[in-house]
């Protein structure tokens, strides 16, 4: 698989983190185990470890983001790396500089790692293909393609609550069609051998042949889809899609696919509710669910730092290996 | 690498740990260190610390320290594959600590462990107890309490096997202990 060759070095170690696709179960478990160790760093008086001291990480966010960018920044800082946050809207790219020129200029400033978010699918792969041999690229979300660190932090959160993957029923609810998060989640769940993966959405928001492509079951009815599930992952309904006639209205969407306490009764009593954020309250879910005892949404944010530390440490660690 | 041979049997190790406990008790009394907290360094150090903790009858729970994130060879060998989270059940600030490891060789593990401890707080004092001190120091670090002292050839390694029974194994390596040619360490193996 081409992604595999791009992401791994000759010894099979993680050099870039671009997509879940092609990564082995063993490597994903190793990343999750690594993140477990990093979780404890937040408990220290000095919330830092010296692992990546001297390394420089540049956050290149061509799309707006607060949560993801901040957690990447905190993750790098907790590894003692130096962090550059580039304000793309006022940068040279906005003045016409090409992506490759931006990459070359930052490489000339001895940046060791780029965390890239871009509206175009494939941007992180493109940068990885052209990056200098000592530079790592992490995909922080590209177009509709992938958001691998979000999927990994979701897997981490699931494992902490459910202990493992091979006995689970997991439902992903919402705009599967436009969601890079959902794509990465489906690949991660499959790789981690979750036996029952369900996607639940209106027909207009499900990709064609999703069942064959990802080995999941498609449901068009929320109550049926979340019956006896262990995990419910709600996706953000991208309001910008509302105008494209894929959905009649937010109100109707909530009536049919919004998660409420009442509807949660169909899931297992100890089912957890997840959401990558930001939540549209009253559209994807009720506030009672978002803030309820089964919600692990804020934990996902905390876990995101540890998981991103693990990904960064593994990529930066492989740079020095011969 | 050659097959490991037994350097110290279990009975000798248990006896040495008993002596270490007596020596530690005397030191604590002489220095007036009240209510110390004991912390073992993964993995062998925790095995030794578990025994010392019981022999000294310490009231505070035993702490575990993983120094993987503080190793100074990260850029050479990458991140350690089997990191166990450190667990410090007591506050470090202003506490008298007893740090325990299995083998003191280069001193780099102890340096890393001290760095971890200081990221949790500022201890009042740290006493270092190790089962074996051997040649090969690369940093100015010495133990306060020692079970065995050993002198080995440049290619020889001493390693604690455990947790039950504890046995010290001696192995001759085929490579020189030159950091520039040092191969990646196997999982769970410390720097000494």
From TrEMBL, chain A:
Function of the molecule: Catalyzes the condensation of carbamoyl phosphate and aspartate to form carbamoyl aspartate and inorganic phosphate, the committed step in the de novo pyrimidine nucleotide biosynthesis pathway.
Annotated protein name in UniProt: Aspartate carbamoyltransferase
HAMAP family in UniProt: Asp_carb_tr
GO cellular component, one term: cytosol
Positions contributing to carbamoyl phosphate binding: 67-68, 117, 147, 150, 277-278
Residues the entry annotates as binding L-aspartate: 95, 180, 236
SUPFAM superfamilies cross-referenced by the UniProt entry: Aspartate/ornithine carbamoyltransferase (SSF53671)
NCBIfam families: asp_carb_tr, PRK00856.1
Organism: Caldichromatium japonicum
From TrEMBL, chain B:
Transferase listed as a keyword: yes
One term of GO molecular function: uracil phosphoribosyltransferase activity
Listed Pfam families: Pribosyltran (PF00156)
InterPro entries: PRTase-like, PRTase_dom, PyrR_bifunctional
Keywords noted in UniProt: Glycosyltransferase, Transferase
Stretches assigned to the Phosphoribosyltransferase domain: 24-148
Enzyme type, top EC level: transferase
EC assignment: 2.4.2.9
Lineage top rank: taxon: Bacteria
NCBIfam families named in the record: PRK05205.1-1
Protein name: Bifunctional pyr operon transcriptional regulator/uracil phosphoribosyltransferase PyrR
The organism of origin for this protein: Caldichromatium japonicum
